[in-house]
């Protein structure tokens, strides 16, 4: 099973690279597999690569679901 996480692009760095925000964690990723990415866009990230650009509303919904799952998990612990 693979997990791809929505991340917000904060800044473009070297050619085909960007800094993204993954729930507060900033990480440099490769943009080699996607086109026309600008700061503020959401991308799906897997093992350091942006796989595709994501609709901002869909990204927010997905991140809200992850937060809900995490809260439920914390309540069960």
Please provide a brief summary of the model.
With 77 residues, the protein is an alpha+beta fold. The chain has one helix at 56-76, and strands spanning 5-12, 17-22, 25-30, 42-46, 49-54. The longest helix is centred in the C-terminal third of the chain and has 21 residues, at 56-76.
- Approximately how much beta-strand content do the residues carry? 35-45%
Could you name the ranges where pLDDT drops below 50 across 5 or more consecutive residues? none
Please work out how many helical segments DSSP would assign. Answer: 1
Shape: elongated
Largest sheet: 5 strands, antiparallel
Strands in their spatial order, largest beta sheet: 3-2-1-4-5
Overall mean pLDDT = 91
| First-residue to last-residue Cα separation | 24 Å
Strand-and-helix sequence, N→C? EEEEEH
SS-derived structural category = alpha+beta
Using only CA atoms, what is the Rg?
A: 13 Å
Say how many strands there are: 5
Helix amount, in percent? 25-40%
Provide structural commentary.
With 77 residues, the protein is an alpha+beta fold. The chain has 1 helix and 5 strands, in the order βββββα. A hairpin with a 2-residue loop joins β2 and β3 (25-30). The longest helix is centred in the last third of the chain and has 21 residues, at 56-76.
């Amino acid at each position: 099973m693979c997990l791809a996480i929505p991340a917000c692009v904060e800044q473009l760095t070297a050619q085909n690279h960007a800094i993204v925000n993954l729930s507060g964690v900033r990480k440099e990723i490769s943009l080699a597999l996607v086109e026309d990415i600008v700061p503020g866009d959401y991308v799906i990230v897997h093992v350091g690569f942006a796989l595709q650009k994501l609709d901002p509303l869909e990204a927010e919904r997905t991140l809200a679901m992850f937060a809900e799952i995490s809260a439920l998990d914390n309540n069960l612990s």
